[in-house]
Amino acid sequence: QIGQLGNGAGARELGTPKSTPVAVQGLSDAAEVGTGAAHSCARRKTGQVVCWGGNDRGQLGSGTETNWTTRVPVKNITGAVSLSVGLDHSCVAQRDGSDKRKLSEIDRLAQEYQQQGHTTDAYLLWFYAARQGDGKAAFALASLYDPNHFQSGSTLVTAADATQAYKWYSTAARQSIPEAAERLQALRARLESQAESGDMSARRLLLNWQ
User: Fold this and answer.
1) In Å, what is the CA distance from 75 to each residue of 62, 100, 109, 161?
2) How far apart are the C-alpha atoms of 108 and 119, rounded to whole Å?
3) Residues 65-80: tens digit of each pLDDT
């Protein structure tokens, strides 16, 4: 109804659902695509980012709050290397290492989403920031997976995963997050106990522990 398909539909067509795929108008070189509640964005092979659909919170990055039925360029983005789109936000990392949103702001927003029950959006934001090397986001991700701290049903993560916990705690530790080293020690102790009981997955992870 507000241009989510990006096919340039006119006023008469906007309320008509489509049961088959339609092409986004003027977009043939997408390298990555992300979708939110009512908007979508694509990272082009050129490094430009374009978005379309609902824009009531400025999530299209066009400089306005006008909805777009066709793709509109995100302002000041010319060298994008990764893209993350959530409920009503869009984030981009550029070649020069700068972010459309500062990593500290992304972490704060993720915590707000988590508290509001928007666990998918919180996870996506933490994952995006952690991939950029943010220690707090990496610690938050690791905590979601950590068998010692896993809370079933409270997040997007459906099962504890020691491998993912180890990966993200290690990232957080490299960024000098002090609690990460403590969590790693506790995780290793748990894995050693499981390995002694014959758990092969625990043994494999311990063999790769650095």
Assistant:
1) 6, 10, 21, 39
2) 14
3) 999 989 999 998 888 8
